[in-house]
Design a protein that fits this description.
- This protein has 223 residues and is mainly α.
- The protein has one domain (11-220).
- It is built from seven helices and no strands.
- The protein has helices spanning 12-44, 49-69, 76-101, 105-128, 137-157, 160-187, 193-220.
């Protein structure tokens, strides 16, 4: 079979697909690493008390800025990713303990399952879309700022219905971010280690916040 038919494995289409899958596999691999250290942080977090919670919140923000500055500096970029995921796990552990102590363990599992389904669906749409969705990035950032401002206002007003509405809008928003970020992954060919790490962080934050939003929505139904 060595005739004049061009081999698919030698075609430009195959090479492009291989590069795309290479970026996806690297991002998924980094997400797997982040998930492991998030689980470790969540296990340790409750034993650290309030101090651990604040260290997780502030340290996580610092790691984000540090990652942007050191994205192409190996192995510092990977170390920062691990530290960031661990600190986010510490925060998550403290949140989950509150729900478990309130007898809402089943809600936690339901939220995890719903998040997995939503993330897979949104990710599939974003990754397989033939459209370039980069033009919606600005709109999503504006929407995120509005949600953050509304959340800060909600801290002072303390109206349960407002928090339910914020969580619902935020869940939709982070689902849209997943579509957007997985579309970025699909369109980033031959990503460097720094690019892959930053893409992984974006997807990680999408899933993390989506889980918290769904958890809040499901628990609100039991109040």
């Amino acid at each position: 079979m060595r005739g004049g038919y061009p081999s698919w494995f030698q075609s430009g289409a195959y090479a492009e697909q291989a590069r795309d899958q290479g970026t996806l596999s690297r991002v998924l691999g980094l997400l797997g690493v982040a998930a492991v250290f998030t689980a470790i942080g969540a296990f340790v977090g409750p034993s650290l008390g309030t101090i651990g919670l604040w260290v997780g919140v502030i340290g996580g923000l610092i790691c984000i800025f540090a990652l942007r500055a050191a994205r192409d500096t190996a192995p510092l970029n990977l170390i920062l990713l691990v530290v960031f995921a661990t600190l986010e796990g510490v925060v998550l552990g403290d949140v989950l303990v509150i729900y478990i102590a309130a007898g809402l363990s089943l809600i936690v599992f339901q939220a995890a399952g719903a998040t997995a389904v939503a993330a897979l669906a949104a990710g599939f749409i974003g990754y397989t879309s033939h459209r370039d969705l980069s033009n919606i990035g600005g709109f999503l950032m504006v929407a995120l700022i509005i949600v953050i401002v509304a959340s800060v206002i909600g801290l002072f007003i303390q109206v349960p219905l407002l928090w339910t509405a914020i969580s619902a809008v935020s869940a939709i928003l982070f689902s849209a971010f997943l579509v957007y970020d997985l579309n970025r992954v699909a369109r980033t060919q031959g990503a460097s280690e720094g690019q892959a790490i930053m893409l992984a962080v974006s997807v990680y934050l999408d899933i993390y916040n989506l889980f918290l939003d769904i958890l809040n929505l499901l628990s609100g139904r039991r109040r």
